[in-house]
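Field guide to reading this record: the first block holds the primary sequence, the second block holds the structure written as discrete tokens, and the final block holds curator observations. Each block starts with its own label. This record concerns Aminophospholipid-translocase, catalogued under organism Coemansia furcata.

BLOCK 1 — SEQUENCE
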Amino acid sequence: MSKRRTTGGSWGDRGFNGDDEANQRTLEGEAIPMQQLSRDSFSSTFSTDTPLMATVADLDHMADLHRHNDEHSLLPQSSAAGRTSPLNPLDNTFKQKYAANVVSNNKYNFLTFLPLVLFEQFRFFFNLYFLLVALSQFVPQLRIGYLLTYVGPLVFVLAVTMAKEWHDDHARRRRDSEANGQKYQRLTATGGRQVIASSKIRVGDLILIEKNQRVPADVVLLRTTESSGACFVRTDQLDGETDWKLRVAVAPTQKLADSAGLFELHGTVYADAPHKDIYNFVGTLRITGNADGSSSDVTLPLGVENTMWANTTLASGAAVGYVIYTGRDTRAAMNTGQAKTKVGILDTEVNRLSKILFLVTLILSLAMVALDGFKAVWYVTLFRFLILFSSIIPISLRVNLDMGKSFYSLGIERDKEIAGSVVRNSMIPEELGRIEYCLTDKTGTLTCNEMELKRIHMGVMAYTLETSDEVTRHVRHHARGLHQSADATAVTSSAAAISAHHGGSKARRDMPQRVFDMVESLALCHNVTPAEDDDSSSSGGSAQRMAYQASSPDEVAIVQWTELVGVVLSERTLTTMTLRLDALSEDDHAESPQLIYDILHVFPFTSESKRMGIVVRSRLGGEIYFIEKGADVVMGPIVQYNDWLDEECGNMARDGLRTLVVGRKRLTRAAYERFDAAYQRAKLSVVGRAAAMRDVVADYLESDLELLGVTGVEDRLQDNVRATLELLGNAGVKVWMLTGDKVETATCVAVSARLVRRDQLIHVIANLRAPHEARDALETLRTLADCCLVIDGDSLQVVLDFYRDEFVQLAAQLPAVVCCRCSPTQKADIVRLLQRATRKRVLAVGDGGNDVSMIQAADVGVGLVGKEGKQASLAADFSVLQFSFLGRLLLWHGRNSYKRSAKLAQFVIHRGLIISIMQVVFSALFYFAPIALFQGMLLVGYTTVYTMAPVFSLVLDRDVTEDIALLYPELYADLTKGRSLSYKTFFSWLLISIYQGGALMLLAAWLFDTEFIHVVSIAFTGLVLNELLMVALEIRTWHRWMAWSILGSLAIYVASIWVLPAYFDPSFILSTAFVWKTVVITAVSSVPLYIIKFLRRIYAPPAYAKLA
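BLOCK 2 — STRUCTURE
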């Protein structure tokens, strides 16, 4: 069903061979040279998936592999650009020249706040326009009315904007302070520990990092609590990968008796110049002597396996690190883009319309001057008209829109359905209503990163979590038989009995034995290290609860399942593995019997081989087994013929489960000795060592394996992820998944989350290396219109390097895209590429530090509060607790924010246009004189106390109910077309303003020709009443505050008639003639619009009206 482009993979090229001499040599701290490796060579020779128990063999192999070029590896590369710092500095002056270890997400500082805010504001045309208008009032020849009338609104707008920007940036700075204030322990020369804040850490410090603690800076690993010097780190906040990574301490420092011995060493640490590549590091550690005066000049190479990068988390034990990069020089910071000021598309559209309004103002001013015959100093008259008609571009528009944004943001934070949501950028809530692409991380965003074994299929029977008690019953039945048939003194190892039972053919084995064989193999074939849970001592139970460390959460899930059914991995060393049969603990045994095995070889999982194997020998009976598990595509030819494997793997894959096929082969002692001899010879090969080792494993072991069964592991999705993705898809939002995980994992999650429909083709592009391969892949993709594209990071880079435009044009049309093995920089590049190519609004959502660049680059960034930190949440525009909140955030809050702001913007523009049209008519009637119709308090009051509250109450309006918006997500697709605020709606409001302004002014002059001295109060009264009626006309869903704002504004206007006697004559306004004529003027200007709206709702209702 899916198409995959793959290149030849390589089988694991090393394994633990039980070489006690080599083991002891490493444990005692002998310096084993390791050259700096690229990402590819590192994964092939020292896989980050390698477990703790395989560390010794891996180190041994790396030493053999690179011994011939040790001399080159010890020489620092690009030393001119690198940095060398003393291991134990006598003074700390050198530390001051490196960057401080601070997290900074704020946009401004004390010096840049004012200039940057002003620059951002005057980028908008209407703000710049009103600045020029305000400045013109300082020229006596151009002054019209009061100076405060023009300067006051501009100052108020800027003050409100600055207050909002300061508030948002202050919140970011406060959150940064919390991160910078996290406490760590710094080792001191006196042997003590000094507690310091993260921001006080400097290059050259020795920092103690505890288990589950975030690494505060980039460090070289000097010591760990593990005797082998190894430890695991979680890097999902850096690269998005869920696998734990193995890190190794520098051998000479690891062998010291305690950490105080570090201060007795003298030497230098060289590190290459800071760069973005998290998979590459070049450095050296030179030890020149001890404090006692003894000299021993030793130089050791440092690679990425000896480092822990900032924002990773120590997953096992405790460690001491030497700080090499801090602050902006860390890998995490260099992969994080600088926060930018985001401008919403609605603000851009309003800015574009303001330029049209300026052209209207210029045309009207030129028309007035031209009709007057360009008399005298006409250019001064032209400027006076420009100032007189300046209300066409309403400065109150900026105030109303910004206040509306704050109101929408408050509504999001107070929504109990998405409790815990935080708006960190209150300038772009309308953008939530215009999203067409959603780029999401996988781990911690769509999934909980909690693996769970859901299903096991063994050909004729299948088991799930719900039927695990049946598995336990079979295990108990078979284990009891083993125990009864074994000698009482051999309880600690039932290998002999197992041998007797395993000796029979597959057909003769009964059901309990087959189930036990599957469970036993799963409990043995892995790279998991057990440890007693910290809480087990307080649990009160008799059985110890186990905690597991592994490079893959899949394997932990499988081992946890074997524990659930009664076979517990109780102990693992470099050479042995012990299983405890807790299934028998319910019998009359004081202690559970144990099965002990010798580990002869381990073949770790790699992304190329897609399988993992182990050779074990039972301690008592001596039976040797080769157990292997892996992907169905590679295990199919290895296991014995069967007729059910492909079908069951397909069924599990369609259910979104990650499948592993498990097979086993019993080896005679002679067969094993032949394999071991050949394998040792292959390990000594100078040329083609990896291929030789791979061939030996394939020839001697990987053939005719007994198929035991198939496991299905699920990476548990967050609540309601499937429903949310379906909702976004129906709303016309195309979802891309960008993840650091491998192709198989990402594909399974995409299927499980229903990002891929059941009948949809999955097209995989992987392992592209050359331009012609990329061209062929794109040609194939061009023929697949409706498919989900899955592409890995290396292939993506090749495609972007050579066929950037072609790729994005094809991918942008697909319903779903999954990008795997993406670096943080690649994620941000994809966002920017999609923005440039489509000109559509892009939303990015993630939960880790590796998602920050993507979040900051997107038009809208949404951060989830992840388990490993709040980096993404702090850097995002909107912070939510669950991915499922995204549906409501877009379809309800995004819809309301955009629709309300669009209506508010157009109404404020209409309010300025209508008063300007009245001014035009007034000036034309008075022989084209640039005299203001409304001055002083009337002009200021019109946009504030008389109409501001009713107009702003439109932010409470809604066109559909919440239930309809979420029930019919197709309504959201109409928003992305931008029809609520377009040239069509703008010119409609322009015509309405011309009609109403002309009607009000002309009728006022005609009906009150005998009382023309009162034309100002006549026209102004009609204008205020008309605006209040227009607000009522635009309201679709009434709210009590809307009614109160209209009635309150009307009451304020009536009261102001007596308060402002300079503008109103109460006796004249209370006359009967004034009242009925004003009613007629208002009716002529507004009633036709009511009739048109009524007819439109009957004969051409909008789509949402049909659903209401």
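BLOCK 3 — OBSERVATIONS
Residues 1-80, 487-508, 535-542 have pLDDT under 50 and may be disordered.
The radius of gyration is 37 Å.
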